[in-house]
């Protein structure tokens, strides 16, 4: 509790009610008072209502008129003194401001007229009037405003006119009327803001007081910023996966061992994908430990060398030290391998996905960088077949509006059979490769200890390709890297329209 909050409680205790905080605490600004009152109200120590009062203050010009009389009165007194006044002499005699405004308002009040000689003279209405008896309305209203008396009796139109003439300025005074709350006291117990598991498990919550939700809070007004297109498309894919019962894999480890990135996936150690011109190797540290599952390691050695689980293997001398090298993962299937190895501890139908960065030491061009975001899904279930894979791909892509898929056999070291997936793109008027897929091999799955009939299908695509198509981006560098324009969203029509994923 702040000193000021305590001061408020003590004053409330003394007075039983605070009719005006302004009168009691003139030294505190209304924001400070409001903040203290809100905090105490949250503890049910008090209730309060806000009283806003509109105020008017005289400007310098307004004060001058109050002291010397209005411009229109000054003009009629000068005309009375001179008998008449050439219009051309008004400004020189009274000055531009008094002359111009005085004339306009004197004419409006019917106090002056212009004769045939272009002279100003008092109107018939004023001819037989003692000007000392002439009511100077402007001056008397300014006096009323200065004294702050009966402002509500002044015609709002007059107040607006005085504001327009910059004779007065409008302000606001915020005051508060405070009464005791249902749990008023001059001490303050700490209000908890979070209900923790400890509070529940120890029943401590029963003796604690919790701060009520402030549903009227304005919250953080986000007035700027925009999501990156890749993040927007990633979120669309994430929602599709979630809607199909998939769980997101932990993908925040970019550095992988050669074992999980290649050997576990039945990629032979002499495969070109493992060469330096395709893969980024880490210099320091140079190596990492292998999994401590000796059976698993023995199976991997066997399937690579003479084969096992019905495979004849690659017939080469498999070297464990090759697995200990560290790489920037070249595909997110390395994560899938780790997750499937975990699954072997408790095998059951499972749906997993990941969307994250992967790295390829390849030549870069307008549509390829040395990294991209791989979208990958794996589905484990008993006795599923290639037909299930085809059907699932059609369901998956249909959720982003892509239908009429065609499948073409291809090769992946870790899946057999494997298929590239194509879709006809109306806008590009051609068949576009939209992904790759396959049934993971027994050499990979049974080596992990997964049961023979628990089959796993997998598929992958990149995040950049659909994003570039969606936002009509020709060069990947418009989307990713240090050359991205910060006003991409504003200048990219597709971004503004935020069309469906695949138009
Ligand atoms: O994303 C790709 N193309 C694509 C994807 C989507 C799209 O629009 C969406 C439908 C709305 C439009 C285009 N491709 C895969 C195909 C090509 O772009 C290809 O030239 C580039 N490929 C990348 C790899 O290239 C080095 C895309 C990337 C890719 C390829 C394969 C996989 C993942 C990403 C995989 C896999 C896999 C297979 C089996 C089991 C587990 C994972």
From TrEMBL:
- Cofactor(s) demanded: Mg(2+)
SUPFAM superfamilies membership:
Class II aaRS and biotin synthetases
| InterPro entries in the record | aa-tRNA-synth_II, aa-tRNA-synth_II/BPL/LPL, Phe-tRNA-synth_IIc_asu, Phenylalanyl-tRNA_Synthase, PheRS_DBD2, PheRS_DBD3
- Name the Enzyme Commission number(s) assigned to this protein: 6.1.1.20
Q: Which UniProt keywords apply?
A: Aminoacyl-tRNA synthetase, ATP-binding, Cytoplasm, Ligase, Magnesium, Metal-binding, Nucleotide-binding, Protein biosynthesis
One annotated GO molecular function: metal ion binding
Q: Which domain of life is it from?
A: Eukaryota
* Pfam families linked: PheRS_DBD2, PheRS_DBD3, tRNA-synt_2d
Catalysed reactions, as listed in the record: tRNA(Phe) + L-phenylalanine + ATP = L-phenylalanyl-tRNA(Phe) + AMP + diphosphate + H(+)
- Give residue ranges for domain Aminoacyl-transfer RNA synthetases class-II family profile: 231-493
As for subcellular location, the record says:
Cytoplasm
Its GO CC terms are: cytosol; phenylalanine-tRNA ligase complex
Which GO BP annotation is one of this protein's? Answer: phenylalanyl-tRNA aminoacylation
Q: What does the annotation say about its assembly with partners?
A: Tetramer of two alpha and two beta subunits.
Report the family membership.
Answer: Belongs to the class-II aminoacyl-tRNA synthetase family. Phe-tRNA synthetase alpha subunit type 2 subfamily.
Could you tell me what this protein is called?
A: Phenylalanine--tRNA ligase alpha subunit
